Amino acid sequence: MELRQLKQFCTVAEMLSFRRAAERLHMAQPPLSVAIRKLEAELGAELFERRGRTIRLTPAGLEALRTARRVLTDADEVRTATRSAAKGESGRVRVGFVGSATYALLPRLLPVFRARYPNIELELRESTNIELLSLLESERLDVGLVRFPTASASALQFQIVERDVFQALLPKGHRLAAQREVTLKSLAQEPLIDYASTKVPGLHAMVMLAFQHAGFSPRVAQEATQVQTVMSLVESGLGVALVPSVSSRLASKNVVFRPIRGLPAAASIGIALAYHAEKESAAARRFREVAGEMTPALSSRNAPRVRR
User: Fold this and answer.
1) What is the mean pLDDT, run by run of 10 residues, along the chain of 308 residues?
2) What is the reported pTM?
3) Residue-range domain boundaries for the chain
4) Are 166 and 260 in contact (CB under 8 A)?
5) Beta 269-276 vs 120-126: how paired, if at all?
6) What CATH number labels 3-86?
C-alpha cells in the first residue's frame, strides 16, 4: 500500500465520483478505477457500493477513510518536519556552557535565538571546560560555550563569541582597593586564589602567564574550579584573584574590581563556541550563526591555546 493509493481513495470518497476524482487527480478515469479495485483487493474489503454511475462508501470504506486521512496528515507532518530540520528551522541543539557564560553571553544570545527559531529545542548543560570538551568530542553535545584559550582535540573548531580581560578582584577594604589600578607586582605579594590546573587548565595557565610576563611568581593560597567560587573565596578574605571582567555584573558588594596596569596582551581571555565542523547539524549551525551575528567572529586558527 502506498500513500498515492490512499490519496486516490480519499479523493474518490470526497467526490463520490470517479470522473470528477480523476479530473482532480489529473489522470484518466479507467486507471483510477483499476487502482481502487487493487486497493480493495489488498485490503480484503469493498470500499464503495457501485450502482451504475452512483457510488457511496461502505461501512468498511467509512472506517478506511478516517484512517487514510489521518495517515496522509501524518505523512504531511513528517514531510514538513523533515524539510524544516534540513533547513535548520527545527530540531534540537545540545548546548554546554561554563558558568561565566551566564553573566552576559547567554542572556543576550538565548532570547534572540528562541525568537528566531521557536521550533528548535535547546537542551542546556552547565559544566567545566574539560568536561564540556570531552562531551563535545564524544558527540554528547552539539556546541559548547567554553573558556579560551584551551586545549582541544584536533576535530574541534572554535569561534570566539565573547572577548574579555582579567581584572583584579579584591575584598572590600583591602589596601589595594584604594588604588584606581593595580600592578601584577603588587598582586604577587598577596595570597592568590587560583584556578585548579586539573579542572580549569586554560584560566590557570593564563593567570600564570600574566605573572610570568611581569617577572613575578604568585603566592597561591587556594584553588577553585568555578569563577563564582573564586569570587566567593575572595569575598571571604582568603586572598585576591584575577577574574574575567564580565563577572563584575553579578559580583557581591563586598568585593571590588580594579584594572591591572601592564597586563600583557598574550593573557587575553574570553569565551569561544566549540563545535565539530564536519558533524554539525543544521540546527546547531543556526545557533552558531546567531552567536556570530551578536559577537566578533574569529577563526579557530586565531584562537589561542595552551597545553593541558
Assistant:
1) 88 90 91 91 91 87 91 81 68 93 92 93 93 92 92 77 94 95 96 92 92 94 94 96 92 94 88 91 92 61 38
2) 0.68
3) 3-86, 91-163+269-302, 166-267
4) yes
5) unpaired
6) 1.10.10.10
